[in-house]
Design a protein that fits this description.
Length: 434
């Protein structure tokens, strides 16, 4: 059994991995390094970094289907994937102050009125509730500390020597100027560490799997227009495909009731996402969701997406367009950072030739939700940077070139909490077995 497991990133993936190791009585040492803060000191404004990572301040929606949230069944098969999901959901309930409030929405039939314009992907979602994530984080953290996990906070890992198995820190983390040795490394740096993963992939010339572009807008409108669909599926996923063009679109991460648009900052540029609060005091009766395009076959998809995002900035922030509305406020009552533009010209030009697919999507939503008309707005862009996925051994997610280094979560191929946590658990199970 490996004696010394080092995890880079205290996000959803590694927290689940460490939990599995502790639960199964792992006898070695576990060290988790994160550039963010522990859950007691982490502020609400620190959206991406700290205990539980981006999942810690997310919308707390745990998707429960293998075709949603990134790759898992491709590595371990359908049945095992569902079993791993169950373990992640059980963990969220276990550290939840009110586990009985964790509810599963499970829509069953595709409603007639959305046809023939859209398909609707139906899948169950467990709702943890954004407002409880902080408490869950604290309970979970205490459990891991009591279990003997050592955390190193507010420390950025800047390099990893895969040959000599040493982790290096920014400006020489005082107690470990020589770096930290590992037997096994689990790399779970999430979206905030995407550049770092890319750096390592280039440095070590890691083989990769090709990826599509994922880009679009965050759509926002009063909830009443969408209520008949929300009644069927809370986090509805409308989709359509243009097979011959290599383009597919889907609505992504729908938030309702107390729904707020969130600004994400990556590479110094702004893009958008959304989250929902559970507490009734935050109710604003709005709905927001991404309209995301997946485009296959673009050469250097990562660079292409970054370039488009850059073109969609004015004065250091993203854009907002609406035929009738103004940008909304955050749950703290502050303006969502965006420059309002009067026409779609700049947006269409920057996303050339793909924005027409988003435009058609909105036009067709107006047909199936007749009250919507011009009562909507879009925050631009929403982007999922799918950096090249390192090629891993499917049985343990280890690098084909360095089998004692495992990639998990958004740093590998996940895009959501359940899949990230399940990938972490999967690796932990492998470590325990071997
Ligand atoms: C606003 C928002 C809302 C979301 N809502 C949902 C949702 O409702 N449902 C859902 O399924 N998914 C949601 N997601 C996505 C989900 O949060 C992620 O898929 C998930 O957290 C990924 O887990 P991870 O462990 O791979 O990475 P993360 O949870 O992002 O954790 C990565 C950790 O690594 C640390 N790190 C990065 N680089 C370094 C470094 N060099 N040195 C040290 N530490 C480093 C970071 O500080 C971070 O704590 C949301 C994301 C955002 C941003």
């Amino acid at each position: 059994m490996s004696k010394n497991v080092v995890m880079v990133g205290a996000g959803v993936a590694n927290v689940n991995a460490a939990t599995k190791l502790i639960d199964e009585g792992f006898k070695g040492k576990i060290t988790i390094i994160d550039m963010g803060k522990n859950p007691y000191d982490r502020k609400y404004s620190e959206v991406m970094e700290g205990f539980l990572g981006a999942g810690g301040w997310s919308d707390g929606k745990l998707t429960y289907h293998t075709s949603i949230g990134g790759q898992l069944s491709k590595y371990c098969g359908e049945e095992k994937a569902m079993e791993l999901f169950d373990q992640v959901i059980a963990n969220f309930k276990r550290f939840h102050p009110k586990p009985e409030e964790v509810q599963c929405s499970n829509p069953i039939a595709e409603p007639e009125f959305i046809k023939p314009y859209f398909g609707l992907r139906l899948f169950p979602v467990w709702h943890v509730g954004t407002d409880y994530l902080h408490e869950i984080g604290k309970n979970w953290y205490d459990f891991l500390v009591d279990g003997g996990v050592e955390f190193i906070w507010e420390t950025k890992v800047t390099d990893i020597d895969f040959e000599n198995q040493i982790v290096h820190f920014e400006d020489g983390y005082e107690p470990l100027v020589e770096g930290l040795k590992y037997d096994k490394l689990i790399f779970g740096v999430g979206k905030s560490g995407i550049d770092f993963g890319k750096q390592l992939a280039e440095q070590y010339d890691l083989p990769t799997e090709p990826k599509p572009v994922q880009i679009g807008v965050r759509f926002e409108a009063p909830q009443k227009h969408f209520q008949k669909l929300i009644d069927v599926s809370y986090d509805f996923k409308l989709y359509r495909k243009y097979e011959d063009k290599g383009v597919s679109l889907r609505s992504f991460c729908t938030n309702n009731n107390a729904a707020y648009v969130a600004v994400e900052e990556t590479y110094g540029d702004h893009s958008y996402n959304g989250h929902a609060k559970k507490d009734e005091v935050f109710r604003n009766n709005m709905t927001n969701f991404g309209i995301l395009m997946e485009v296959q076959g673009i050469d250097k998809p990562f660079e292409w997406s970054r370039d488009v995002v850059k073109k969609l900035q004015i004065d250091g922030t993203g854009l907002y367009y609406s035929p009738t509305r103004k940008p909304s406020t955050t749950s703290e009552g502050e303006k969502v950072s965006a420059i309002q533009v009067d026409t779609l010209h700049k947006i269409a030009k920057s996303m050339q030739p793909y924005f027409m697919y988003v435009y058609d999507f909105i036009e067709d939503m107006k047909k199936i939700f007749p009250t919507l008309k011009d009562d909507w707005g879009i925050y631009v862009p929403e982007v999922k940077y799918l950096s090249a996925e390192p090629l891993v051994n499917y049985e343990d997610l280890s690098l084909t070139k360095y089998p004692n280094v495992h990639f998990v979560g958004d740093a590998l191929s996940a895009r959501g909490i359940t899949v990230s946590g399940a990938q972490g658990t999967y690796v932990a199970e492998y470590i325990l077995k071997n």
